[in-house]
Amino acid sequence: MAREGLTYLFLCRIDKRKKLIEKIRNKYPHIKIVDVICSGRFNPAYAFKLLNSGANGVIVLGCDPADCQYREGNLVAERRLFLAKKTLSCFGLDAERFQVIWHKVNEVNPVLSEISRFMNEINIINEKEGSMEKK
Amino acid sequence: MIVEIEENVKKLLKKLFKENDIIISYRNSGIPEITTPFIIRSKNEIDYISIDNFCVNNLSVYLSKFQQSEIRMPVNKGRVIVTAKPCDTKSIIQMISDEQIDKDKLILVVYECDGIIDTKRLKRVTGELRQISVSDDEVNFTKLSGEDGKISLHTVLRDKCLEGSCDVPYFFDYYFVGNEKRFKERIKKRSRPHQLPVQNLKNKAELKRIVEEELSKCIRCNACRNICPACFCSERCIFDKPKLPVGFIEKEVNLSENLLYHLIRFYHVFPNCTGCGECERVCPQGIKLSLFYKYINEILVKEFGFSAGSTDSVRQPLLSYRLGEDLV
Amino acid sequence: MKEIQEKRVDFLLNPAYYFGGITFLFFVIQLFTGVFLLMYFIPTVADAYNSLRFLSLEVPFGLYVRTLHRYSAYGMLILCILHMIRMFITGKVAKPYNLGWISGVVLLFVTAAIICSGFLASFDLGAQSILYKIADYFEIGRKDFQSLILINFGLHLLLPAGVFVFLIVHFNRIARAKILPPLSLTLIILGIFTFIAGLFPISTKTFEMKKATFLFEKIFPTVPQQITALIIFIAILVFLALLPLFIKKRKNIARVDQQRCVGCFYCADACPKKAIVEIEKTINGIRQKIANVLEIKCQGCGVCVGACRSAAIQLDGSLDSTLLEEVNKLWLEKA
């Protein structure tokens, strides 16, 4: 399966993360950003659909446990996302392409470093796949 | 099957039955090795009930109020009486926990089952049958050609019964016990720790190949979805593309859409699946769905201490959270 | 884990969050101190002033109770206005809060009326000065004063019942179930308040028959001016009460499609505000239990939408289909 080279970032509280979004748009133009109001709103079926169509990766950026504006949305989401990862691994898809990170709203640099780490991992996976296909 | 069980169940049902009640049980279909579900609305039909080693259907699927059947529990003024095997009661209890069944209107008659015969396995030995009967551990059959034969019950039971998933159910209204010694033996057999077969495949490429091979066979008939007790959305399922202009999957049948369908269904059913195995039994293409659904329960037991169908007072783990849990 | 608990505790002890609750607290203080004052006050022309003088100078703690009564009245009015400003800033005027807002405006009016009648009931020099002026303006004889005083005092006792009635409407339409602030905060406020009341008792100079005037009378000395001020005040309140008609901005609210709800209540368990309840409804001839969203409590986070398996609950500003459309569009965009 050819990877289309697009990564998707679903994040919450987009009005408070404007700086982060600008930096991501400048550094990684092929990361598409989608606003979900709270990480609890995210339905893993979106991730399944994207990864199935050949997306490079899907990241969900939620808030720290103590930081959710809506009290507990991110805590409710955590178990759901865990099951989503289990589902992906049960069906043989790369569960590493689906990553969930939790950070406070005003943190910019830690998020960027995690995203770059994720992109490196994805590149390694892509290379492995490419070499396997050639075989 | 132990004959007394069938007689005792019929006696009890005749005593319990009132006007407007509905009984869901089994009856013989006319073909010797097939016993089908049977819905009774009048007392004189109770005599046609047959409870034997071929009662393979999980009757809990008829209880969910939105299933495409004539039984709608809240509308029916009377009660619903179900004769269930111990393994089926797990599905019923899970549905009660998910608020799909009205517990007050349900009367659960559980009978201890001797083991269900896997007809495919049986037919490999016997061919087409004219007649068949089971007593104790022996299966006596007459082939279509007229030949008589005898085999041990143990050799033709389905895998699920050999593993002994017949725990005493969490709640019931009436419970008919057969052979207590054999029941205890069967429970003892379930000693080995289980793990999803797919997770045993360490080699990811191998797993991927198997998944692609199996799911290419899928014709998206939705039989697995329709028979599954945990899929209680039935006619309101998101795959039927309701008013949403953009749905989750398209109608095309190809590997990509099939994979998406199964991914989403697996994720939805994960917390409620009791491992009844009906999905694999009804698949017309013979897809090995047990690769994915057989031991889902074990993952939840390990992570959250939750076993689907074990109790109706605790809801599934996705609806709660523990502070400090660091899962993903 | 400690982090989350600390954050929750901070959030809940912020006094600004409880302006409404503190207003109610002051109302309760007024009720209790009012009962005490009722035992000593005599609503007649001759004795109104003297009974109060007796209460303030001779009865132990009499002046203290009067101080509490008056300061809690001020406090109630000020906090009522602060509460109203906060509700306006946080956008709790439009639907579904409109009934709560209107009942709040009416409560403000009734509170102001009670305070007015309270001042006039004491019939001290300041009250006498205003009342005589009004009586002369409207040509009411001095001998009718007794009935006027009685009517005024009757209003002062009856209007709190009106406050109760409107409070029931008001409480029915608010999102939080608790009315008073948490116990620790309540005790702190009571402590500070009683301490300040002890330090600054109300002046007893008026009993020495010196001329005393209200602030109100100083600003509006003549009766026509007073009447105009009253009319302007009522006009402002009417305008405030009509605000919900002009402000149409609505927040995102979750909505259940009743044809699609399966009745599993995953959404109800997932909701952080417990805003989803069970209702029974007959749909397509079948009586079933389905989910219903309480619009007032909903905060528009969408966690219920993420929990629903049959796409039965949707968020007004963020439907599943629009999100999928957006994702499709981004997919077609390429890099």
* Largest interface, counted by CB within 8 Å of the partner chain's CB: A-B, 28 and 34 residues
Order of helices and strands of chain C: HHHHHHHHHHHEHEEHEH
The biggest sheet of chain C, with number of strands, parallel, antiparallel or mixed sense and barrel status, is:
2 strands, antiparallel
> Could you tell me the strand content of chain B as a percent range?
5-15%
Spatial strand arrangement across the major sheet of chain B: 2-1-3-4-8
CATH architecture of the largest domain in chain C: Up-down Bundle
Task: Describe the overall structure.
The complex is a heterotrimer of chains A (135), B (328) and C (335). With 135 residues, chain A is an alpha/beta fold. Chain A is built from four helices and four strands. Chain A has one domain (7-134): Rossmann fold (3-Layer(aba) Sandwich). Chain A has helices at residues 18-27, 44-53, 73-90, 109-134; strands at residues 7-11, 31-35, 57-63, 98-103. Chain A has a four-stranded parallel β-sheet with strand order 2-1-3-4, with helices on both faces. Chain B is of the alpha/beta class and 328 residues long. Chain B has two domains: 3-116 and 168-189, no CATH class; 197-319, no CATH class. Chain B has a five-stranded mixed β-sheet. In chain B, a hairpin with a 6-residue loop joins strand 1 (22-28) and strand 2 (35-40). Chain B starts with a helix and ends in a 24-residue tail after the last helix. Chain C has two domains: 2-246, Cytochrome Bc1 Complex, Chain C, CATH 1.20.810.10; 254-333, Alpha-Beta Plaits. Chain C has a two-stranded antiparallel ribbon. Chain C has a two-stranded antiparallel ribbon with strand order 2-3. Chain C is elongated and about 85 Å long. Chains in contact: A-B, A-C, B-C. At the A-B interface, helix 2 and helix 3 of A face helix 7, helix 9 and helix 12 of B.
